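Input:
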Amino acid sequence: MPMTLPELPYAKEALAPVISANTLDFHRGKHHNAYVVNGNKLLAGTEFEKMDAEAIMRKTAGDPARAGIFNNVAQAWNHAFYWKCMKPGGGGRPTGLIAARIAESFGGYEKFAEEFKTAGATQFGSGWAWLVLADGKLQVVKTPNADTPLVRGQKPLLTVDVWEHAYYLDYQNRRPDYLAAFVEKLINWDFVNSQLA
Ligand code: MN
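Output:
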């Protein structure tokens, strides 16, 4: 089925000043949209055309002949997931089940926050930092480019986009400042809890 560009789950001005409307306009309207449009072009007429995105990602991951399909479909999926990981007035200490799981897995929220921000800051070049559920445990991982924990048997719970297009208009080269603001002011813990359930 053709991929579609999802609406943001908040107004484009709603995350400012942490992430500006200008960044969200370019990020969703140009970058995310290009993955959707290019992915649909590459999928048309192939065996993958009628599959859902997750099935396509699992079938094409690691196959050099299908790299174009994987990269565009995975980037479309990663971005749709990323928008849902943020909300106006979010961030800070988690609530609900995820709070207990973070305490148990990382030894406290502060340690999780450090590990998550470090994963994002140390992802060389473009990519993503994630909180995932793997073998029943929470883990922080990072992936390059379009790569996603979904194709490694890990369940994504939270992600932050560390491609420069995610932060450059607001933070220029200061990726650590963007990551700190994401963690302290944007994370939608309700969404993370919904993924854990
Ligand atoms: Mn992006």
